[in-house]
Write a structure and sequence with these properties.
heterodimer; A: about 200 residues; mainly alpha; 9 helices; about 80% helix; globular; B: about 475 residues; alpha+beta; nine-stranded mixed sheet; seven-stranded mixed sheet; 7 helices
Amino acid sequence: MNPLRQLVQRIVLPDAQQYLTLYLIALLFALMASWPTAAAPVNDAWFALAYARAAALGLLSLGYGATLAAADRREQRLVAAMLALFALLALPLEIAAYAASYPATALSWVLPLPALTALAMYALGLLLGKVLLAIRLHPLIPIVVPAALAGMVALDMTIGVNLLNPFTAAVRVSWPHLTMLLLAVLTLFVFLSQRIQKEAV
Amino acid sequence: MFKGAVRLLLTIVVLCGWGAAAQTGEIEFELGFRSAVVENAWNPLRLVVRDLPTVEFELRVDQGTLRSGSIPLTYFARVDTSRGITVFEDELFIPPWSSLSWTVRTGARTVASGTIDPRLRDERPLSLLLSATPGRWLASLPAGARPQEVAAGELSERAAAYSGVAALIIDGSASAPTLESIVTAAAAGAVVVLVEPLPTSHAALLELLTASPGGYERLGAGWIVSTPAEGVSQALSGHSGFPLEESLRALLTGEERAAPPALSRLTVVAAAALYALVVVLLLRFGGDAGIPSALLVGIMTATASWLLLRPDRPVIEQPRTVVVSAGGLGLAVPTLALRSLPGGETLVGQQMRSAEVLPYSLQGDGTRLTLGRWQRELLVGQPELALGELAWSGERLTNLGERVLRDVIVLGLGPQPPLRPGTERRPVASEETSLPPIYGELLALLPAGTAVANDGQHFFVALPAGMEDTL
């Protein structure tokens, strides 16, 4: 079966449909709450949308990664592709808000960031799931995932450098954060391809 | 032999001393008429450079207070000069300030500098006295007036210099000023009082009033009044210049200007919801084509929203010029509503002042200021002489310009039809009572008989020519 058909079959599953719908509704809600009215003409809609995207995509990707730590290779690959697709499909909403808000943040930063964030958080989620499995605390995933996101924010605030915090990076170019994202995505690809070779052998 | 050596040494010392003096040169700096600075007004600035190469002049004004901290306004000018005397003149708006200092440099060397004592701050406009016996007129000035003696040669021919001048009294005992400087002073909003009888050297000034049998004439935003010595006090109390600052505030600050075009929240959210619904349905029921179709819809939506919502430029500028005229001459004040969408340093291509207290700098290439995201700022340029395109010709209103004037209102008669270029019309009482909101609170500041109109970018105020002041 070709990869596209596999992805289609994964996306039509109820969990994917529900999470995609929830993700888009979260963004719509942020857009509705922040779009300016005639009385307040300043358009800060993109900032609200970027924060909402960072939160929703971060939680979704971390959660999927943590829960699929013990899943087979095919499922992990398909979910990685599915999360990247979710990030891409929500981009038009962000571009619309970006166009009207005219932020100083470069568009070349905004365009690749959601997909990179989704894949990096997914990689981190897989690692988190492995650790929880190893110490037999897997049932704590619903608590550990948001705690991990909060921990990233707290760590960055403590060290004063934007390494892991997706909220700061959502609206401001951060080379340390980009480096961390690329490292995480690279690790994910290496991790998945190594498993493919092992299973092939 | 010994005497010869001493002479040679002395000659060398003298020559070296002369060389040093020539290199040091001489700087004369004056802000305001004879250093009388008027706060919240444009002040004449004069820099005389003698025997120096190109100099850089910098004036720093701190507009801040103990509470707000430093809010600098920096004025920078490069004065290109060859050997000899160079006179540099400009007008600079002086806001309320806590410190004011200036420096003249040539290369890395400071050749002159100075400060103005903050205790000399005064926002009262000046009453200029062009007289050999200025003390004679002090009793004629209204209470609280700020008299300042001037010479004819110190009277500028640029309207901005008279921004802080309420009156100019000329009694003919001093040398005669140029006709241009007197016309400029009156058009800029000063009440020019000619004390009769004037000597023949001043005859040209009286010709300004030949068409006015009453001895007074409104000119631009001010007046020219001719009166005997005992009538000076009455002439000053009976006439006053056009309230330019209040009018600008009334006309320009009420409206939310320089806002980018925007779609309503309902439209945007509805379109976004429709997009989300289409994407979810395509992925759920689109089969193999679902994902490519959803991505294609996404690309089309992103492109359309970009084209529809993206403002053309990051900085939106909306210029508007206010022209106040009477007697065939006008005072034009350029203004600019400015909004920077991304924020950051913004350069405006002309020297203007900020209507609000904020840091900015004036340089040869214009005005530089740092704005926050979507911050709107109102800038006001130097007032200058202009021809009023809307003018009274007897009892008829004339459009002397090349654009159709709309929203025509004559105070006391009401709204009038638009005035086409080159046409004139006698205004008639209108039954229409609703006034266009575009003028804000301006109309309440104007005397009866004033006509106002605009072409979208220029706002014209044609004051009634002859009547005694009712402002």
